[in-house]
Description:
With 318 residues, the chain is an alpha/beta fold. Helices cover 34% and strands 22% of the residues. It has helices at 21-26, 78-84, 119-136, 160-175, 189-200, 218-230, 241-244, 268-291, 305-313; strands at residues 56-66, 88-96, 99-105, 140-146, 151-157, 205-211, 232-239, 251-255, 260-264, 296-300.
Amino acid sequence: MTDSKNSTATPTDSPGVYADLPELIQLQFQARGFSFLPRQPIQSLLSGRHASRLRGRGLNFEEIRHYQSGDDIRQIDWKVTARTRKTHTRVFTEERERSTLLLVDQRLSMFFGSVKNLKSVTAAEAAALAAWRVLLQKDRVGALVFNDSSIKEIRPQRSHSTVMRILQTVVEQNHALSLASGARANPAMFNQVLRHAERLATHDFLVCVISDGSGHDEESRRLLSRIAQHNDVLFIFIYDPLEAELPAAGPLVFGDGARQLEADTGNRRLRERFRETFAEIRAAGRKFLQQRETPVLPLSAAEGVREQLRHQLGARLR
């Protein structure tokens, strides 16, 4: 489908059509109120994830529980013990250092939007917020930014310059998106970037896939399963409301730059089947990923990215 805003727009046109580098840089000041760390607030989408196995650089308070034989007596919480009349101890876990690898989709399938942003812009903003947040947590961040013909690799580093390289690469590929460019959609790139990620993320990475999942198949599932064996995986699923449900707008023409299809959206049965098909595909993908302890974080291109991240990952109370 073509984007519903302006297929001939340039990067300097209306916001939401193309990502803006200064705006992505400014997002560093909004990268708070959510976390990709394993230990999460109860309401977070990621709560309950297993602890990382990476080497530690400090200690985080985890919980207070009943004292068990073998616990360090120096960690007994005497106030809780006195109040409950049962011995309680404080439990700490190592603060983990880890590398985060962002897989940022900038293919033609992402060059679509009907309300606020094109999906490609929402993916760019999500990648920026994630990169700034990881850097703020003093962890390493890298990226595989891919379109329909190439994959750009930025190796994980803990530096401001690395985040800037990621953002510049995302913007470069984002600004190259155009239906007039002659580029053709290439669903096979989804598996190609997963194969690249499998080679790069050898152990104890957080692999964050930011994509609409176009082109996923059985090989995608095998690749994600292998990546998840030794890493944490988070799938940030980018979608537009028009992909989930058709409006009752009568006959409409849809196109992908090469082909066109006319459909009568006034047909109630057509709209119902369209909605059911999207829900079935999304549910099947979510079930597969959750079986492998892979959280799915849906982001709508019709809403602000930061607000959705804070809501789904859980804003920490002051």
